[in-house]
Model the fold of this input.
Amino acid sequence: MKTAARIQPKILVGEDDPHLRRLVADSLRDDGYEVLASDDGGEILSHLGSDGQGYSLVVCDIRMPSCSGLQVLGAIRRARIDVPVILMSAFADRDLRERIEAQGAHLFDKPFDIDDLRTAVAHALRDAPMRWRHGANGLELLTKSESVLDAWSLKWMLAASDICAVLTPDGPHTSVYVLGCDAARARAVVDSIDCD
Done:
């Protein structure tokens, strides 16, 4: 039986450190995202310029060759490309943070735990404009769990059914999100667990 192709969020990752770039890109791919990674800010801008509306999120280091992450953010805002941005820096101060947040972006401090960045990505996609959040290619809330361990167990069970789940902290709970196109199958997995 032929199944419909899954539509994946597309993320641009800009990081000039090859080890960190690979870690970030591979981790986001493991979460089910389509990732294009580059070591050059100018290349990030060229991808946005050619198909800016095709990307769901930009994750970019501030210190990059050709164009800095701040220049990338500024160009995105001037071009009115409707995409959330997470900037990363090991050299952030209060002034820089305020400048970035004033442009509607998020600053992520290095060094960081990769799972924290994955959570920030999930939040950015969840809070993205309506064109991304809803529909077959959006993230849908599957369930909220009081136990982080239970949420991770569900994520692994869904992965066994080729369904990508994204976990985000939500107060005392952990929210489990899936792509809209996988929501029905994911709910069937949850229902089968509840019946056991």
Strands lie at 10-14, 34-38, 57-61, 85-89, 106-109, 139-145, 165-170, 173-179. Residues 18-30 form the longest helix (13 residues). The two ends are 28 Å apart (CA to CA). The first strand starts at residue 10 and ends at 14.
